[in-house]
Amino acid sequence: MVFYDPTGSKYGIPTYPFKMAPSGLATVRQLRADGLRPGGQTPAAQILWRRGDRKAFLYRVDLAKPKRTATPAQRAAVDKALTARRTCPTCAELKPYYIPRRTGACLDCEPAGGTR
Description:
Number of strands: 6
Strand content: 15-25%
Number of helices: 2
Number of domains: 2
Radius of gyration: 23 Å
Helix content: 10-25%
Strand order of the largest sheet: 1-4-5-2
Distance between the termini: 51 Å
Order of helices and strands: EEHEEEEH
Shape: elongated
Structural class: alpha+beta
């Protein structure tokens, strides 16, 4: 096994091959799927695969914290920003799609041929 280094003597951090990490460790994606986040902890280990070109850090699940939820004010700010992205600056209509940034206008207001 090329990337099997549980002591971390070769790579500086305990390293495991793909799909061979011990239980109790998880990637950020795996933590998010369980409603957790690393919570400021440093990586406890890593997984290497594809000749070492790919790397994923592993975090201890027992030290992970619950994911934070957005406050009502943050949710309102996001809703306002997304509404602004759907409002055409030319005709001021709210569209069911985001206004293309390359034209800066809705599909009804942009020039007939479009700009590319």
